[in-house]
Design a protein that fits this description.
Layout: H1 11-23, H2 28-50, H3 62-78
Helix pairs in contact: 1-2
Length: 88
């Protein structure tokens, strides 16, 4: 396993790390590794999203889609005997 030494950590950041490690019941070392891991996961996620192909032509007006689905449901329900879509 590799070692990493970080120098010149601002006092405020060091205090935040200490508070984080205490609050999460981790050692300072574990808290730093956890924070680095989370940051790298976010960075990797951003890269994957940025490299996805654009979804041109797939824009959907959600309000229009909901209205269409509700109209379809109302048509189906109104076909049932004794059912009125105004009561739904």
């Amino acid at each position: 396993m590799a070692n990493l030494q970080v120098r010149d950590i601002p006092e405020e950041l060091h205090e935040r790390l200490r508070a984080y490690s205490k609050d999460t019941e981790r050692t300072l070392n574990s808290a730093v590794l956890h924070a680095i891991e989370r940051e790298l996961e976010l960075w990797e996620w951003d890269r994957r999203i940025a490299n996805r192909p654009a979804a041109d032509g797939y824009e959907v007006d959600s309000a229009k889609l909901i209205a269409e689905v509700r109209a379809e449901r109302d048509r189906e329900l109104s076909a049932w005997p004794g059912t009125s879509s105004t009561h739904l």
